[in-house]
Every structure is written in C-alpha cells, then in structure tokens.
Amino acid sequence: MGHYDKLYRDIKNNPYNVTFKDIHILLTKVGGFKVRNNGSSHYVYYHTDLVDNITIPKNRPVKPIYIKKVLKAFESVVKGFGQGGI
Question: HEC profile for the chain?
C-alpha cells in the first residue's frame, strides 16, 4: 500500500493542489466509497458507515474546502491510514 500511503500524505500535506482523479482514487480504491454521477459536473461519494454524502465538483484543482471534507470522511472510515495502521 505504499503508493496509496504517499497519495494520502500528499493530499493531506498540500490540499491546494489536488486533482479530482487523486481524490477519486483515494475514496474508491482505499476508502471503499461508492460513487454516483448522473451526467452532471458533480460526483457524489457515499459510504455505508457514514450518514452524510460528499459532493465534489469535477474541477481542477479541487478547492481546499472539498479536500478537507474528503479527508475528514476518509479518516473517519479508514482509521490509522498513513500511520502504519493499514
């Protein structure tokens, strides 16, 4: 999981230059999130362990406010990631 650990650390350390693709990979491949898109510019990510969904516009770069929401949701689902916990 070295590649995903690095991706997570990069996103966490620099939330100002994150691509939509990076967020998508982190949430779907590592976090187990599912995604919905009905042809709009926004993608909705959801997880069975969370009540709230995360909606992200597919713009580049993604605004830091969305990155902070993503990281909060990701960290609540995947405990200890990036710290040798997984």
Answer: CHHHHHHHHHHHHCCCCCCHHHHHHHHHHHCCCEEECCCCCEEEEECCCCCCCEEEECCCCCCHHHHHHHHHHHHHHCCCCCCCCC
CATH number of the domain encompassing residue 49: 3.30.920.30
Distance of alpha carbon 51 from alpha carbon 63, whole angstroms: 23
What pLDDT digit, counting tens, does each position of 8-61 carry?
999 999 999 899 999 999 999 999 999 999 888 899 999 999 999 999 988 777
Whole-angstrom Cα distance, residue 71 to residue 26?
Answer: 9
CA 64 – CA 47 distance, rounded (Å) = 21
Structural domain range at position 56 = 2-77
